[in-house]
Write a structure and sequence with these properties.
This protein has ten helices and four strands, in the order ααβααβααβααβαα. The chain is mainly α and 189 residues long. The protein has two domains: 71 residues, no CATH class; 88 residues, Recoverin, domain 1 (Orthogonal Bundle), CATH 1.10.238. Strands 1-2 form a two-stranded antiparallel sheet. Keywords: Calcium, Lipoprotein, Metal-binding, Myristate, Repeat. This is Frequenin-1.
């Protein structure tokens, strides 16, 4: 952990990618200051991360989804998110280009990190999103996690092997932007 915000700027640039931009550097400094205020040891653990999600999703149970997102934010896999990991993930998810966002989303869905997204992994994530937002649907419903995942696979799984490579995921997402919405917000493709 850096004693000040300088190493985050050197390593990642500012969140807006405009290195040297005083406004972005100031915003990054204030984010770092707030992060250290909230997490004096400079690290956010998984339970703290889940607690943040619970504040934003009080009507559902974000525990499972927050744990899955935590896994992607914790790049060095040490069980905590340092400021550099936090700010880089925020930068990619909020300001990254389409390829960066798709790479990040692929890492989220590829739970076992084997380079493929299986139907089961996607069911797991989409189900966790439903739990997080408090959406209750039966498995028979066309809006169920299973139905949505099956529709996504019909569109993306080019070779029919029931697992998506990053290329299939990327091409399918770029071909039909509704898929990205479905992956992110549970919209029907």
């Amino acid at each position: 952990m850096c004693p000040d915000h300088s190493c985050a700027l050197l390593i990642y640039g500012s969140p807006g990618r405009a290195s040297g931009d005083a406004t972005n550097e100031s915003a990054l400094f204030h984010r770092h200051k707030g992060f250290i205020k909230d997490y004096p040891n400079g690290e956010l653990d998984e339970q703290g991360f889940i607690k943040i999600y619970k504040q934003f999703f009080p009507h559902g149970d974000p525990t499972k989804f927050a744990s899955l997102v935590f896994r992607v934010f914790d790049v060095n896999k040490d069980g905590s998110i340092e400021f550099q990991e936090f700010i880089k993930a925020l930068s990619v998810t909020s300001r990254g280009n389409m390829d960066e966002k798709l790479e990040w989303a692929f890492k989220l869905y590829d739970v076992d990190n084997d380079g493929y997204i299986t139907r089961e992994e996607m069911y797991n994530i989409v189900g966790a999103i439903y739990e997080m937002v408090g959406q209750q649907v039966s498995d028979d419903d066309e809006n169920s996690a299973k139905s949505r995942v099956d529709k996504i696979y019909e569109l993306m799984d080019q070779n029919g092997d029931n697992q998506l490579t990053f290329e299939e995921f990327k091409e399918g997402s770029k071909t039909d932007p509704r898929i990205v919405q479905a992956l992110s917000f549970g919209e029907t493709p």
